[in-house]
Amino acid sequence: YVSAWSCLIRTDYNFVIMFFFYFVWVNRQDKLTLNVLFYGNIALLVIDLIFFLTAFHSWTTTDPNNPLWDSLRGLHGFAIFTSCLEEVVRIIAIFYLYKRNKL
Question: Between vectors from CA 4 to CA 92 and to CA 40, what angle results, nearest 5°?
Answer without folding.
Answer: 45
